[in-house]
Structure formats: structure tokens, C-alpha cells
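thought: user wants a sequence for this fold. calling inverse folding tool.
action: design(structure=
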């Protein structure tokens, strides 16, 4: 299902004690979503289960961030990220996400678990500027080279700061 929702400027802010939880299979199809995920996404459980997790991808999110996330979790490592999500009604909500690989009893990778919580407003302010620059690099490079361009820009920012993406998101 391709996302055709027009984003609005309406922000939904997570409550302090909220945790959005979802699980996906190896291809990113949603296999579970808790009631907070259903609430904030605006979709019904039936609409979410089986859908690609990018059903909630906001166009303000650089493709380079998702490449970093997938590269990290596909290596069996956890990833922390600030993510701006798009709800079914066009509103948006920021999350601080922790995505980890999920294994079965025989240690086979079976999918991914994401737990999201309310991000710090100060961190969202910082990361918004980074993501805006990444989006500009993607637009300038064009669709074919967009991911490479925004990834290179992000790597440059991180090298300048002398830290990894994980260190950056945990520090801000």
C-alpha cells in the first residue's frame, strides 16, 4: 500500500509514559502493534497488520536515515533514531526509537522489534536541522543518488562532531 496521505502541520505529542511498540517480519511488514501505536498512527489494527512499516513514513524523513537504520539492524545490531512519523489523518508525531533484531528459540533472525518513546523537544530541534540538510542533499542529488548524497552529508556531520549517529542521538 503506497502512502498517499497529505501531511499537515498538526503535531501529536506523545505522553511521558507512552511506549509505542511494533514488530515486523524480515521484510518490514507489521506483525504486531500495541494500542499506543494504533492510537498515534490513526490506523486500525487490521490496516496495520501485514502493511509495510513505512506506511507511517513522513516525507520529512531523509531516506539516508532509513538506510542507516536498515544497515545497522541487518547486521544484528540495535539502532536508536529520532523519527518523524505520519499518521493516517496527515498529522505527525516524533518518536525516539530503539529498533532491535528479533530471534526465535533457535537463534534465527525472524524480524524486528521497535519501541518508541517521547523524544526530548531539544533533541527534535537539533535533529530537525540535520534531517532538513539531508533532505536538501537528497533533492539536489535526484532520486538515483539521493540516499548516497544524504548519507554522505550525515557522515560528514558526524565526522565533524567526532561521533557516530548513535552517539549523536543519545547525546542530544
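)
observation: tool returned 172 residues.
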Amino acid at each position: 500500500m503506497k502512502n498517499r496521505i497529505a501531511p499537515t502541520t498538526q503535531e501529536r505529542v506523545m505522553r511521558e509514559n507512552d511506549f509505542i511498540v511494533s514488530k515486523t517480519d524480515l521484510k518490514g511488514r507489521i506483525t504486531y502493534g500495541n494500542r499506543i501505536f494504533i492510537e498515534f498512527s490513526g490506523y486500525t489494527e487490521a490496516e496495520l497488520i501485514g502493511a509495510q512499516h513505512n506506511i507511517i513514513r513522513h516525507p520529512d524523513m531523509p531516506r539516508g536515515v532509513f538506510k542507516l537504520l536498515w544497515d545497522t539492524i541487518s547486521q544484528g545490531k540495535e539502532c536508536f533514531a529520532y523519527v518523524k512519523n505520519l499518521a493516517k489523518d496527515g498529522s505527525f508525531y516524533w518518536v525516539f526509537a530503539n529498533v532491535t533484531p528479533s530471534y526465535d528459540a533457535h537463534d534465527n533472525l525472524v524480524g524486528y522489534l521497535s519501541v518508541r518513546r517521547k523524544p526530548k523537544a531539544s533533541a527534535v530541534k537539533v535533529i530537525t536541522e540535520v534531517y532538513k540538510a539531508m533532505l536538501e542533499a537528497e533533492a539536489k542529488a535526484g532520486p538515483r543518488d539521493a540516499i548516497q548524497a544524504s548519507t554522505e552529508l550525515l557522515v560528514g556531520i558526524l565526522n565533524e562532531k567526532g561521533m557516530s549517529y548513535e552517539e549523536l542521538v543519545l547525546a542530544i
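thought: summarizing for user.
answer: Here is the designed sequence. The beta strands are 19-24, 30-33, 79-86, 92-103, 109-117.
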